[in-house]
TrEMBL record:
<feature type="binding site">
    <location>
        <position position="184"/>
    </location>
    <ligand>
        <name>substrate</name>
    </ligand>
</feature>
<feature type="binding site">
    <location>
        <position position="14"/>
    </location>
    <ligand>
        <name>substrate</name>
    </ligand>
</feature>
<feature type="binding site">
    <location>
        <position position="213"/>
    </location>
    <ligand>
        <name>substrate</name>
    </ligand>
</feature>
<feature type="binding site">
    <location>
        <begin position="63"/>
        <end position="72"/>
    </location>
    <ligand>
        <name>substrate</name>
    </ligand>
</feature>
<comment type="pathway">
    <text>Pyrimidine metabolism; UMP biosynthesis via de novo pathway; UMP from orotate: step 2/2.</text>
</comment>
<protein>
    <recommendedName>
        <fullName>Orotidine 5'-phosphate decarboxylase</fullName>
        <ecNumber>4.1.1.23</ecNumber>
    </recommendedName>
</protein>
<keyword id="KW-0665">Pyrimidine biosynthesis</keyword>
<dbReference type="GO" id="GO:0004590">
    <property type="term" value="F:orotidine-5'-phosphate decarboxylase activity"/>
</dbReference>
<dbReference type="InterPro" id="IPR001754">
    <property type="entry name" value="OMPdeCOase_dom"/>
</dbReference>
<keyword id="KW-0456">Lyase</keyword>
<feature type="active site" description="For OMPdecase activity">
    <location>
        <position position="68"/>
    </location>
</feature>
<dbReference type="InterPro" id="IPR047596">
    <property type="entry name" value="OMPdecase_bac"/>
</dbReference>
<feature type="active site" description="Proton donor">
    <location>
        <position position="65"/>
    </location>
</feature>
<dbReference type="InterPro" id="IPR018089">
    <property type="entry name" value="OMPdecase_AS"/>
</dbReference>
<feature type="active site" description="For OMPdecase activity">
    <location>
        <position position="65"/>
    </location>
</feature>
<dbReference type="Pfam" id="PF00215">
    <property type="entry name" value="OMPdecase"/>
</dbReference>
<feature type="active site" description="For OMPdecase activity">
    <location>
        <position position="63"/>
    </location>
</feature>
Amino acid sequence: MSNIEQKKVLIALDYDNESAALAFVSQLSPDECRLKVGKEMFTYFGPQFVKKLVDLGFDVFLDLKFHDIPNTVAKAVTAAAELGVWMVNVHASGGTEMMSKAKEALSKYGDKAPLLIAVTVLTSMDQAQLSKLGIDKTPQEQVLYLAKLAKESGLDGVVCSAQEAETLKAQLGNEFKLITPGIRPAGSDAGDQKRIMTPAKAIEAGSDYLVIGRPITKAEDPAKALRDINASIS
Ligand SMILES: O=c1ccn([C@@H]2O[C@H](COP(=O)(O)O)[C@@H](O)[C@H]2O)c(=O)[nH]1
């Protein structure tokens, strides 16, 4: 398996203990995965933690899902770029002006700019939860609608579930990146995830990157769990 194929897995480092997270990371190579830092670890351990991972040579996806007025989000993604992260995200429901301003703010970093992607419909949401929000569309329709706005705004891709990947690749083209959480190896616990798929099926459907947390970090042997997943998608 080439390094490029191996690096399709983005491990969600959702730990409340920095030493435990770093002990796990010390078993990994930047050649076999990328790392995702989300709201929990960022809130506990801050930008210094992100910097540590970047300095260890890992590509880091800073998953803070910014959602605010255009000026604030443009400044927030700039702060992310200053940390040297590989990817950062905003919520597509923040609108096209917000997304375009964020993308524009990153242009000064040239080819060092992090990829900018937009969250569409959280993978923990199903049809019933969308309806409760007053959205009268299927998750598939709503994801496609928001992904089109993200593409129009110049973003590099979206966060969606692998269940929407085939449609999005067909409608938005191969270059537009699909980052898919809600990945569950066969037999593993779905937890709070609703729109799920196995790693191999997700890649087959068109996912570019798989976000995987608990199936790896809560496994008896997390490093082996990653190796097994990488083998299953090679
Ligand atoms: O729609 C989304 C957007 C982000 N996430 C994040 O991905 C990981 C998934 O972790 P698992 O343990 O594999 O469920 C987690 O950090 C979420 O915040 C998502 O799940 N869905």
